[in-house]
């Protein structure tokens, strides 16, 4: 994480807490996108997460609007786009898929740690 941040020529020094904070934010982002993608996969009664599940999660959720250019709509199959109500397409101004903003466990929940011997 620190190497990536140092690639910006404007960054001179990074405190020790910053990479840890960014790593946690990335973890939360990946978890949220994965859960929303998994919800779409479950709706279609499949057991394999596919690229179109991720694209649909991005298109259904306003907070992922910044990813629309990275995962363009033409990657979605026609039937997937047809299944998305027009009011859920980004720019509609509201979350309408019924899921809360974040599905994260409480901060004091037990975490699995990788033990290195």
Task: State the gist of this model.
The protein is mostly helical. The protein has 4 helices and no strands. GO terms for molecular function: DNA-binding transcription factor activity, RNA polymerase II-specific; protein heterodimerization activity; RNA polymerase II cis-regulatory region sequence-specific DNA binding.
Question: Can you tell me about this structure?
Answer:
- By secondary structure, this protein is mostly helical.
- It has a domain at 15-67: Histone, subunit A.
- The chain has four helices and no strands.
- The chain has helices spanning 2-6, 17-43, 51-60, 78-83.
- The chain is elongated, with a radius of gyration of 17 Å.
- The protein starts with a helix and ends in a 34-residue tail after the last helix.
- Its main location: nucleus.
- It is found in: Nucleus.
- InterPro entries: CBFA_NFYB_domain, Histone-fold, Transcr_DNA_Rep_Reg.
What gap, in angstroms, lies between the N and C termini?
24 Å
Q: Radius of gyration, Cα only, in angstroms?
A: 17 Å
- The portion of residues forming beta strands comes to under 5%
Kindly state the mean pLDDT as a whole number? 75
What class do helices, strands and sheet pairing give? Answer: mainly alpha
CATH architecture field of the domain at 15-67: Orthogonal Bundle
Q: Output the helix-strand order.
A: HHHH
Instruction: Compute the number of strand runs.
Output: 0
CATH topology of the domain at 15-67: Histone, subunit A
Largest sheet: none
Unreliable stretches: 91-97, 111-117
> How helical, in percent, are the residues?
40-55%
Q: Based on Cα principal axes, name the global outline.
A: elongated
Q: So what's the CATH class of the domain at 15-67?
A: Mainly Alpha
CATH superfamily of the domain at 15-67: Histone, subunit A
Please count the helical segments: 4
